[in-house]
Amino acid sequence: MAGTQEGASHGGGGLRVRNPQDGAAGLFLLAVAAFALWQGADLPLGTLRSMGAGMLPTSLAVLVGLFGFILVVLAFLEDGPALERWNLRGPIFILGSVIVFALLIRTAGLAIAGPVAMLVSCFASDEVRWKEAVIFSVCMTAFCILLFKVMLSLPIPVFTLF
Amino acid sequence: MDLFANLALGFSTVLKLVDVNVPLLGVMPLPVNILLCFIGCLIGTLIGVLPGVGPIATIAILLPITFGLDPTGALIMLAGIYYGAQYGGSTTAILVNIPGEATSVVTTLDGHQMAKQGRAGVALGIAALGSFFAGCVATLVIAALGLPLTKLALLFGPAEYFSLMVMGLVFAVVLARGSVVKALAMIVLGLLLSTVGTDLESGQERLTMGLQDLSDGVDFAVLAMGLFGFAEILRNIESPETRDVVRGSIGRLLPSMADLKQSFWPVVRGTGLGAILGILPGNGAVLGPFASYTLEKKIAKDPRRFGRGAIEGVAGPESANNAGAQTAFIPLLTLGIPPNAVMALMVGAMTIHGIIPGPQVMTKNPNLFWGMVVSMWIGNLMLLIINLPLVGLWVKLLKVPYRLMFPAILIFCCIGIYSINNNPSDVLFTAFFGLIGYVLIKFSFEPAPLLLGFVLGKLMEEKLRQALILSRGSFSTFIERPVSAGLLVVAAIMLVLALLPSIQKSRDEVFTE
């Protein structure tokens, strides 16, 4: 994401970016559109009478790009808010904990994946109290096993290490 | 009287006894549907009370759990969560000055002031009574409009359906918060996402990047949970809220005669406004309370009382949000078109159970349709009981700090997503969409239009292709057919109006007030 931010603040040469947030948003859309066009390049377009698999993805990607372009242009014309601060700590630990859960659920089971994922997520917050967090995550996992596995009998692996 | 016969069918569905194998107690007949309705309402109230957990994430989590239920029961429970959340949201708005749900934002204005003046109980009471009234009226509206709209929908061809959905998406843009261009961009992005996966006609894989897991397309629950569930947690952690829980007693719950008199017409007007706006696609249910508050303030003899604990400012909007939450089911049940993100999840729930949403629901599954309608009325009655005497319990819940809540939400989300297909890669995709959701928030894009575009995308593509095959590749079919042309004209007018600078300004006012 750093790339789009930089692009917004430095782009434009003599022109001044008056709405950095919309400018960056536009560049984001342009990037998405370019990616979709590249991915869909091999799909046949077909004709209107019998559309090919690529007709809609390609035209929608062009539309997304068009909106991105409009936002970039508008960013030079209208005043708007500055870019919000990007705090990477939240995304890294919250989404990291989700990834940890995904990796552990089959290999170790919920009994391990649950507490580990919850404790990883705790790094995202300043207010965490570790003793409390450890006890809470273990109890919560036990509750989840009881609720989802025992009561609702969903096929979740609980413990697969041994 | 058809209506009464239908409602009777609904009651018999809801009250039906089913033999259930209860652990330890053996097989016994239980009114399963009504129990599910109660569980739905209870969970709905719970998540409504807790800020930061919305009905979208909750329904997405519970979706896999409903696999084992019969479809009617499953939908009754999921619906209960949605309108139950409207009741619960007001409790938090009044007692803590934080909207428990997006639809109770305006309730904080006067509701919390009333609480500070020691009238918290009355505010809660009038909110619940107003919501109950609105719920009853909305149930009747659904019952009355269901049949004619279904008949209308059966006359629609692919071209009309396509135009109807275009109109729906345009409404979603117009009624969304913030920039129109950005909302349009989100809809198109949602449509683009919906094309990911195997093309139904040619069997070719589209935009899957060669990933096996994407060949069935992006799972709706995965997208919703990432964009709403995880992104919401990220937002909450970054800007911790201060909770200003009202101390001291809640006071008496039942409003006095004078209060009731003062609130009667605001409740009626709020119900009307909410019911109408709720039917509209887009954010109708969210807009209702705003519209009601603005109206009450405009016609009040002394508008200065608003913001200082005016009971009308609680009664009107609270009725409006509940009415809107229920009438939002009308487009889904009759036309098969979800008007907002929660209804989109309902589509997911219905398809999982093999029911294709649309006009045929009422003819093929009358028990389901009328059972749901009647369950809403019964659910509203239950909510009155859940909310008023149990309010002390909900207040205690509010004291749970967010540092404990977010890991709990997270683990529920992970288990819910994993259980959809028992596939860990779904969980990874959810994390990816959580990141996307966070990026969108930072660029002040609204995720709701994206989700709506995504849900309607597949159906729109199908109808577009059918219409173009029928017309031999000519787009004029959309304009030559009168109904389709009419719908497109309405959409065009709405869009132009929304883009006009003067309207844009007043639109901003509605949302900021």
Automatic annotation (TrEMBL), chain A:
Q: Which UniProt keywords apply?
A: Membrane, Transmembrane, Transmembrane helix
- Domain DUF1468 stretches: 25-157
Q: So which domain of life are we looking at?
A: Bacteria
Name of the protein in question: DUF1468 domain-containing protein
List the transmembrane segments.
Answer: 23-41, 53-77, 92-121, 133-156
One Pfam short name: TctB
TrEMBL record, chain B:
The record ties this protein, via InterPro entries, to: DUF112_TM (IPR002823)
Task: Specify the taxonomic lineage.
Answer: Bacteria, Pseudomonadati, Pseudomonadota, Alphaproteobacteria, Hyphomicrobiales
**Which keywords has UniProt assigned to this entry?**
Membrane, Transmembrane, Transmembrane helix
Q: Does the keyword Ribonucleoprotein apply?
A: no
Q: Where is the DUF112 domain?
A: 34-452
Signal peptide location: none
Keyword Protein biosynthesis assigned to the entry: answer is: no
Residue ranges annotated as transmembrane are 121-147, 153-176, 183-200, 332-356, 368-395, 402-420, 432-457, 478-500
Q: What is this protein called?
A: DUF112 domain-containing protein
Looking at the Swiss-Prot or TrEMBL record, what is one Pfam family this protein matches? TctA
